[in-house]
Amino acid sequence: MKGFLEDANYSIGLLDEGATLADVIDNCIYEHTHTGKKAFYVGDLGKLVRNNVQWQNVMAPIKPFYPVKCNSTPGVLEILGTLGVGFACSSKAEMALVQDLGISPENIIYTNPCKQASQIKYAAKAGINIMTCDNDIELKKISRNHPNAKLLLHIATEDITAGEEMNMKFGTTLKNCRHLMECAKELGVQIVGVKFHVSGSCKDLQTYIHALSDARCVFDMAEEFGFKMNMLDIGGGFTGSELQLEEVNHVIRPLLDVYFPKESGINVIAEPGCYYVSSAFTLAVNVIAKKTVEYDKFLPSGGKVEQTRNDDEPVFTYYINDGVYGSFASKLSEKLNTIPEVHKKYKEDEPLFASSLWGPSCDELDQIVENCLLPELSVGDWLIFDNMGSGTLGEQSTFNDYQRPLIYYMMSFSDWDEMQDAGIASDTLMKNFFFVPSCIQLSPEERFSTAA
Ligand SMILES: *Cc1c(COP(=O)(O)O)cnc(C)c1O
């Protein structure tokens, strides 16, 4: 791989045998307690390596193309590039980012359903040819700006559980595929395959069965038109649980063998996003303010305290130094799938109180957790959120004085070995590793990076 981000200010702590993620978090909290108590992430890049091993074990030969928008921090992109994962980009900025990594254009697909003409031109120039398309206006735009484009027709799935998610909004019908093929023939645009996406919240695996047979119909239709079809993209929506991956595989494998057998030369690819990164990042936030519900206010004269409190009303309201205008942006559109852990030690029999958690903006949308049970916290205490790896990490925030949390990357020695077995890491990546003996501390002043 080509030298990547020569001046990138990031480093990866290589953990000595015996040191754990929890030690790294403890240590960072210890340091931050003396340096302003800013929120920070710890990213275990070894998790990406392990998730990739699991993908290869269960899903091979389906090739993963990681959607850059899920987490575009340099450590993540560079490790995935080293592991030989491809990239699904939704913008020029994302394409440029992975190109800078030295990723070759065959390993990049352009998947935005609503592409800007100038960005299609950019893809054409960069030799990024594979892109998705679900309507004729998009098709015409592509034909004008990218004569060598190779299209994947994005078909809709019947994922009713996903509500208004992208499968409802994006993707076309089988009937319209015929129309798109007629247009493509007329315009001389190549169609090379089909893409669909089943969201991670869809529990009904039948959706895959329908989507795969629909995809086969589109392949047959394409044959009539004389298109040479060679790619099937089964999208993302893998949660990261091995069980879910195996369940999906169990359902799709027999159908792939029948409809898209190896001998047919059709490459099956997928776009696992959350799968790779969600569980790899842990966010630590600090309690910056606290409010207590005043019981007296609700007390009718002579009433009993217990009866007057509204049960839905949390007893404590805590404000923390990251919120929906930062790391919890996904909370605006979906449920948070993580429960905070209290970092300080507390006794098992300590009383728990109904508590709500809010971001620092004082905005009414900035609620992170509506109601959870926590021991009583003080201003300055830390809360830990797991599974925070997919979302806004890597994006530039447009909100006024929001500062991205620092990111500490780490990896264990055994994951490091595994990574070296899997791919050839560039010299620049290798230079980013530094050794962390189990008893020695990571020093944030020297070893931090902010998200790119
Ligand atoms: C966001 C996105 C995905 C990722 O979905 P996950 O549920 O995170 O796997 C896949 N494909 C495209 C084009 C996306 O934009």
From TrEMBL:
It is found in: Nucleus. GO terms for biological process: negative regulation of protein catabolic process; positive regulation of polyamine transmembrane transport; putrescine biosynthetic process from arginine, via ornithine. The active site is at C362 (proton donor). The keyword Protease does not apply. Keywords: Nucleus, Polyamine biosynthesis, Pyridoxal phosphate, Ubl conjugation. Residues 46-278 form the Orn/DAP/Arg decarboxylase 2 N-terminal domain. Its cofactor is pyridoxal 5'-phosphate. One of its GO terms (molecular function) is ornithine decarboxylase activity. One of its GO terms (cellular component) is cytoplasm. The modification N6-(pyridoxal phosphate)lysine is found at K69. Transmembrane segments: none annotated. PANTHER family: ANTIZYME INHIBITOR 1, ARGININE/DIAMINOPIMELATE/ORNITHINE DECARBOXYLASE. Antizyme inhibitor (AZI) protein that positively regulates ornithine decarboxylase (ODC) activity and polyamine uptake. AZI is an enzymatically inactive ODC homolog that counteracts the negative effect of ODC antizymes (AZs) OAZ1, OAZ2 and OAZ3 on ODC activity by competing with ODC for antizyme-binding. Inhibits antizyme-dependent ODC degradation and releases ODC monomers from their inactive complex with antizymes, leading to formation of the catalytically active ODC homodimer and restoring polyamine production. Belongs to the Orn/Lys/Arg decarboxylase class-II family. ODC antizyme inhibitor subfamily. Monomer. Interacts with OAZ1 and OAZ3; this interaction disrupts the interaction between the antizyme and ODC1. This is Antizyme inhibitor 1. It comes from Taeniopygia guttata.
